[in-house]
Structure formats: structure tokens, C-alpha cells
Design a protein that fits this description.
The complex is a heterotrimer of chains A (418), B (143) and C (144). By secondary structure, chain A is mainly α. Chain A has helices at residues 3-29, 32-53, 59-81, 85-91, 97-103, 108-119, 126-136, 142-149, 153-169, 180-201, 212-228, 233-246, 272-287, 294-307, 316-329, 333-347, 349-359, 370-381, 385-398, 402-417. Chain A is 72% helix and 0% strand. The longest helix of chain A has 27 residues, at 3-29. Chain A starts with a helix and ends with a helix. Chain B has 143 residues and is α+β, with helices and mostly antiparallel strands. In chain B, strands 2-5-1-6 form a four-stranded antiparallel sheet, with helices on one face. Chain B has a two-stranded antiparallel sheet with strand order 3-4. In chain B, strand 3 (53-56) and strand 4 form a beta hairpin. Chain B is globular. Chain C is of the alpha+beta class and 144 residues long. Chain C has a single domain (2-119), classed as Alpha-Beta Plaits (2-Layer Sandwich). Helix content of chain C is 33%, strand content 24%. Chain C has helices at residues 11-14, 21-36, 89-98, 126-143; strands at 2-8, 40-45, 53-56, 65-68, 78-85, 110-114. In chain C, strand 3 and strand 4 form a beta hairpin. The chains are: A mainly alpha (418), B alpha+beta (143), C alpha+beta (144). Chains in contact: A-B, A-C. Chain A binds chain C through residues 124-127, 130-131, 149, 151-152, 154-155, 158-159, 170, 191, 194-195, 198-199, 201-202, 204-205, 261-264, 298, 301, 311-312, 314, 332, 334-335, 337-338, 341-342, 344-345, 370, 373-374, 377, 381, and chain C through 1, 38, 86-88, 117, 119-144. Chain C: InterPro entries: Dimeric_a/b-barrel, YCII. Chain C: Belongs to the YciI family. Chain C: This is YciI family protein. Chain C: It comes from Paenibacillus mendelii.
């Protein structure tokens, strides 16, 4: 193998092994920052040696052994430096060989779980959680993360350093939370993954484009989580949601980067493999026998669209029922608005209008342009054209998006012409 | 990027002989490892070619010819496949190297093929250009 | 994300007028509150501008000019600052609003500034996905 191909291979090995390595080391040294340093040290040694010696049969074990040795060296040096030898000795029970060997087998899943709960810890800001999770669990370089977020590398490097410092300053336990705390903390983890996914998926303020790396990483993390926390229905729910949304990746944007809405997407191009995986994940969530949570419900809604071969075959009554369920586990005016449209599609615009009129008094929607916009559409269907025009005009006055305003004003003008 | 690891057929797979318990377990462990790494998309084994048919077009534009299995040339036959999603070609090779010898008796062969995938937008020059121009705009805004 | 809460100068701060006992206690209590919440990175007060100096670079290059204080335009002067590390803009505003009026004599001003390293990484919220669904649905409604 040539040197450069060895280096590329090491890079691939790092991607496969780094999270396990860091997770195992963090359990020993109880500090993810230090654990990452040790893992990096082992990588550096591998980069020096492997081009000459060839890649060992079990590179993961090699890296772990090397990192462990570094940990012991570090401890010895600290011992020499520290006069309170005895105290240190007692504190270092963690470092016995026995304990270290444990890291090599069995508990890898648990360690990874501990790691993700740590990188998504609530003491960190939302952004720090995302960056640190990409770095430590995704095995991405700061450069890759910076590229994904379109920011300078130093920005990401700083974030990660500070996040690690915060974790160690606040003495965050390297543990999976138990009891009541577990559900709260789990939803934080899921939120981080879904944020990462949406950041990649949605059209951002700068224009509309898709950043596939973030989507792929989020999906991969979700899939990992589904294997190491298989008893949590919302984990499968989130995976299902991301798989199904990803199935539309190819069809969401046209050649010039403009978004294509669901109705006009070429359904033949939807990725059936991902849809099938999404449906399977949803089924896993269902089989756990607990009421579906927000992610699973959103996935189920997405699945309704995925299963309709033609837009006209969409099962709107089921979508309406799913939004109803969603509004109970995650009450929000925007869910209600979605429900109103689904109900109008299933049972007629008059029923949708009823819900929208009830929402009119909702303070958080007072300036929300999609409320009058939806209302306008219902009124058009009910042949109340004059009123509809008023709603479109009102919607146009509320949106800050220039293109959207133009479209709404055009609709208002169409009402006048009738 | 997606890769397909194609497991080639052998005399055993063609004879419908079940693999040893040991190999089955090793394969199971391997698939589990792929799943836990979040890279596994699908993994399936195929029945022996005796249950398959081939449809060939001997003449361009002519009628297809249907042929029942089994087919000869075990090495040309696909016995199973594993579909993975990874970040690089090297990562795919690394995973392929870790697959247990699929057939034991010295006949095993795995073929690694990259899937042509338009979802891999990073490879799309338009997207890259778009990203580059956005990056530029952001840089300009900073200064 | 890190914010700097800039306390603007006033004629009182420029004259080094000592604020009331209550005001100083309130400010100390506020600092303690920040520290105990783990958000305080630094809190400093500055001497009046009379002990400061300004280095000005002429528009067309050339040697900088040094002027000594005191300077006028009190509102443009900085009397002190606190640096805090918080999770959101809302949290920063919330902390800033809890600060006792820094001037101690009325007529105070606090300016909140985000440190430049803090570019926003995330532009989305989970509700944005629901909003995208809503747009899809509206579109289907329109075309049905």
C-alpha cells in the first residue's frame, strides 16, 4: 500500500473506531475532553507507525491498547508530580488493567450511550451539543464540521474546546441518566439529532440548498441510537421520521436550487429503500406497545405521504387523526393549523375553517401569515371570494419574505378578477 | 455514498447447503456491528440459482429468451448482498474487509461496488458551486 | 454563546460619584447571582475617562495621534462591562434586564453585544419542520 492510501485507510478506520474509542476511554478517565486527547494521541502514533508496519489485524483494539498506555503514562507522570502519592493511588482505581479490559468488549453500546448523553448534556448550549456530538460521535474533523455549517474552522474549534471545558468544569457525570431524568435527557438527545438533521435539510436563511453531510450524520447517529437504546419508542420514531424525509432528498430541490413542494415532487424518484426502512422503524416504535410520541406521530404522518403513489391517493382522514394525536402530545398552534388543512382535505373546507376560526384568538398566531393564508384558501373553496381576498392581503402584509408576499398578492388579485 | 457488498455464489450456496452455525453467528455479529455503526441499510441472502430465471435478449429489439436456473459458473452468481452507507470509499473497503469469509471452504468472494446515487449531492457540481458562492457571501459579510 | 454587557458612562461615572449603599449592594448581589448561576466570565468597572487616552489613526494613514482624557459624549464612553456565557439571546437579555440600573442615578444605559466568535450555527427550530409540512399541505389544498 502506498503511503497516501495507508493514510486514507487510517482515516476510514478512525471514522469507524473513534466514537467507541473515546467512549471507552471516557468511562475510564471520566472526562470526555481527556478521553478524546488520549484517542487522538493513539491516532497520531498509528499515523507514524502503520505506514511502516502495515495496518494491524484488529486496528480498533490496537488503538485502544495504545490509548490506554497513554492514560497510564499520564497517570504515572501525574503521580510523580503530585506529592500526595497515596491519595492519587486511591483515586486511580479506575485505571486498573482489569477495568480497562472490560472496555474492549460487551459494554461498547453502553459507553456510546453514555457518550451521547454527555455530548448532549443540558449544561451545554444547543449549538455546542450539536458540534460536540458531530465531533465525538460522528468522528468528524473540525474542518468538516465547519464546512457543514459554512463557518470558519476556528469558530468550531473554539466551540468544541469550550464545550469540553464546560463539561469538566461542571463535573458532568459520564453516565446514562436513570429514572425520571432519563426521558427528559433522552428528549434532549433526540432534539439535538433532529436539529442537526433539519439544519441540513431545510432551506436556511441564506438561500435554499441541502447540506447532505449533516443529514447523513444525523441519520447515522439516529440509527446508532436505535441499536443501543432499542427499548425507546421515540428513538425509532425519530429514525423513522428522518428516513422517510430523506427518501425525498432527490426530489426536494430543482436544478436551480429552488424548493419543490410535496405536491409537485416526482414520487417515482422517492427512495423506496429509505421509505421501507422508515416504515420498519415506525413498526419497531409501535411494537413497543406504548402510545406514540411526537416523533413517531410525525413519522406516521410522513409515512402517509410516502405510501400514497399519487398525491390524490393520500389518506387525509388518517393524517387528520394523526395530527389530532400530535396536538395532544405536543400542543401547538402550528400543529392545529396543520390539522385544519388535513381536515379540510378529508372532510371539506367548511370543517377546516371552523378550526382556523378557533385559532384566530390564539395570541402566538396573531402575526403569523400562514393563518390568514390558509383561511384564504378555505374561503376560495367555499366561494367566499371577497373575504378570501382580504385574507390573502392580510397574509401578504404579515410576511417578510418578498417572494411569498408577491405570491399572496397575486392570489388576492386573482380574487378581484373573479 | 452507498456501496453494495456482493457475496458471490459457491458450490455450497448453489447446492442450497446451509452455512455452518459458526459462520451464521459470525455473519450475525458482523451485521450487528454494521447496524451499531449506523451504516447498514439492507442485507439479504438469495436462494440458489436453481430457483431463479434468466431473461436474455439475444437479438436487439427481438423477443426475450427465458431460461430457468440453475446456472453454471457459481462465481458469476450472486448469493447475497449487503448495502451500506458510508462516508468514503476507504470506509467501505474497511467494512468489506471485516466481513467474515462468506463461505468458508476457500471459495468465498466479496465484490464491492459503489452505487450510482444522485442523492449524494456533495458530488454534484451545481450544488458544490452553490455552496461555494454561499460561503463566499458569508465570508464577505464577515469582513 | 458569550455576551458582553457594556455599561455606558454617565456624568456621574465621569465624576467618580459614589452611588448609594443600596445600589452597590444590589450590584454586588447581582454579580453574585451571575456567578452562582455559572454564567459570569468577567465583571469590571473602569475609571473615569480622565485617566484614559485615545489613539486615533488619521483617515489617510500616517502616524496615530494620542489624546488624553477626559472625553466628552458620556453615552459613548464605557464605564464598565460584564461578560457572560449563556445559551441563548433570550437568556442574555433576561440577565441584562435583571441588572440594577448601573448608573445609580437614573439615566443609565446597558448595551448587549454578542462576541463575534459566536456566529449562529443553527438556523432552524423543530417547529420549522412542522411549518414546512404546513406549506406542503397548503399547496396540496390549493391544487386540489
Amino acid at each position: 500500500m502506498s503511503d497516501s492510501s495507508v493514510l486514507r485507510t487510517i482515516d476510514a478506520i478512525w471514522r469507524i473506531e473513534s466514537a467507541k474509542l473515546i467512549a471507552g476511554l471516557a468511562r475510564m478517565v471520566r472526562d470526555v475532553g481527556l478521553a478524546e486527547d488520549l484517542a487522538q494521541d493513539a491516532l497520531v502514533i498509528a499515523l507514524e507507525r502503520w505506514p511502516a508496519t502495515g495496518i494491524p489485524d484488529n486496528p480498533g483494539a490496537w488503538l485502544m491498547t495504545t490509548a490506554k498506555r497513554r492514560a497510564i503514562d499520564l497517570l504515572r507522570r501525574n503521580k510523580l508530580r503530585d506529592q500526595k502519592y497515596e491519595e492519587f493511588g486511591r483515586g486511580s482505581d479506575l485505571y486498573t488493567e482489569n477495568d480497562m479490559d472490560l472496555t474492549m468488549d460487551g459494554e461498547v453500546g453502553d459507553d456510546l450511550l453514555r457518550l451521547i448523553f454527555t455530548t448532549c448534556h443540558p449544561v451545554l448550549s444547543q449549538e455546542a451539543r450539536v458540534a460536540l456530538t458531530l465531533r465525538l460521535l460522528g468522528g468528524l474533523t473540525t474542518d468538516e464540521i465547519a464546512h457543514a455549517f459554512l463557518v470558519a474552522e476556528s469558530t468550531i474549534a473554539q466551540r468544541i474546546v469550550r464545550a469540553k471545558r464546560t463539561l469538566s468544569a461542571k463535573r458532568v457525570d459520564f453516565e446514562v441518566p436513570v429514572g425520571e431524568e432519563l426521558q427528559d435527557r433522552l428528549s434532549t438527545v433526540l432534539e439535538v439529532i433532529y436539529l442537526m438533521f433539519n439544519e441540513g435539510y431545510s432551506a436556511t436563511s441564506g438561500g435554499s440548498w441541502i447540506r447532505p453531510l449533516l443529514c447523513q450524520e444525523a441519520l447515522r447517529l439516529g440509527r446508532i441510537l436505535a441499536e443501543i437504546a432499542p427499548a425507546e419508542p421515540e428513538v425509532h420514531g425519530l429514525v423513522a421520521l428522518m428516513e422517510i424525509q430523506s427518501s425525498r432528498f432527490k426530489t426536494r430541490v430543482n436544478a436551480s436550487g429552488e424548493p419543490i413542494l410535496l405536491m409537485d415532487q416526482n414520487r417515482a424518484l422517492w427512495d423506496q429503500l429509505l421509505i421501507r426502512r422508515g416504515l420498519a422503524a415506525l413498526e419497531r416504535a409501535r411494537r413497543l406497545g406504548r402510545p406514540l410520541g411526537p416523533y413517531a406521530l410525525q413519522a406516521a404522518i410522513s409515512a402517509c405521504h410516502a405510501q400514497a403513489r399519487l398525491a390524490s391517493e393520500t389518506d387525509w382522514a388518517r393524517i387528520a387523526a394523526l395530527y389530532e394525536a400530535l396536538s395532544r402530545v405536543m400542543p401547538s398552534p402550528i400543529v392545529e393549523l396543520n390539522r385544519a388543512v388535513a381536515i379540510a382535505m378529508a372532510f371539506g373546507p367548511a370543517f377546516g375553517l371552523q378550526i382556523v376560526d378557533e385559532l384566530a384568538s390564539e395570541p402566538s398566531l396573531k402575526d403569523y401569515h400562514l393563518l390568514p393564508s390558509v383561511r384564504g384558501d378555505f374561503l376560495v373553496k367555499l366561494d367566499r371570494i371577497d373575504e378570501a381576498r382580504g385574507e390573502f392581503e392580510r397574509a401578504a402584509s404579515l410576511t417578510r419574505n418578498v417572494r411569498e408576499r408577491e405570491l399572496l398578492l397575486k392570489r388576492a388579485a386573482e380574487c378581484s378578477n373573479q | 455514498m452507498r456501496f453494495m457488498m456482493i457475496v458471490k455464489g459457491t458450490k455450497d450456496s448453489e447446492a442450497g447447503t446451509m452455512p455452518s452455525q459458526e459462520l451464521l453467528e459470525a455473519m450475525l455479529r458482523y451485521n450487528e456491528e454494521l447496524a451499531k455503526a449506523g451504516v447498514l441499510l439492507a442485507a439479504d441472502g438469495l436462494h440458489a440459482s436453481s430457483q431463479g430465471i434468466r431473461i436474455s435478449y439475444p437479438e436487439p429489439g427481438g423477443k426475450p429468451k427465458v431460461m430457468d436456473g440453475p446456472f453454471t459458473e457459481a462465481k458469476e452468481i450472486i448469493a447475497g448482498y449487503t448495502l451500506i452507507e458510508v462516508k468514503s470509499r476507504e470506509e467501505a473497503i474497511e467494512w468489506a474487509m471485516r466481513m467474515p469469509d462468506p463461505h468458508g471452504y476457500g471459495e468465498g468472494q466479496i465484490e464491492l461496488r459503489q452505487i450510482i446515487d444522485a442523492t449524494d449531492l456533495t458530488q454534484n457540481p451545481d450544488t458544490l458551486a452553490m455552496e461555494a458562492s454561499i460561503r463566499e457571501q458569508i465570508e464577505r459579510r464577515k469582513t | 454563546m458569550r455576551y458582553i454587557l457594556i455599561v455606558k458612562g454617565s456624568r456621574y461615572s465621569e465624576a467618580s460619584l459614589k452611588t448609594s449603599r443600596e445600589h452597590r449592594d444590589a450590584m454586588a448581589a447581582y454579580n453574585e447571582l451571575l456567578a452562582r448561576a455559572g454564567v459570569l466570565l468577567a465583571a469590571e468597572g473602569l475609571q473615569p475617562s480622565s485617566s484614559g487616552m485615545r489613539i486615533t489613526y488619521p483617515v489617510h494613514g500616517g502616524m496615530p495621534k494620542v489624546t488624553v482624557g477626559p472625553f466628552t459624549l458620556e453615552k459613548e464612553l464605557v464605564a464598565g462591562f460584564k461578560m457572560i456565557e449563556v445559551k441563548s439571546e433570550e437568556e442574555a437579555i433576561d440577565w441584562a434586564m435583571r441588572m440594577p440600573n448601573p448608573s445609580g442615578f437614573g439615566d443609565g444605559e446597558i448595551e448587549l453585544r454578542l462576541l463575534s466568535e459566536d456566529v449562529n450555527l443553527l438556523h432552524v427550530s423543530p417547529t420549522m419542520a412542522l411549518e414546512a409540512d404546513l406549506r406542503d399541505q397548503i399547496d396540496m389544498l390549493k391544487k386540489s
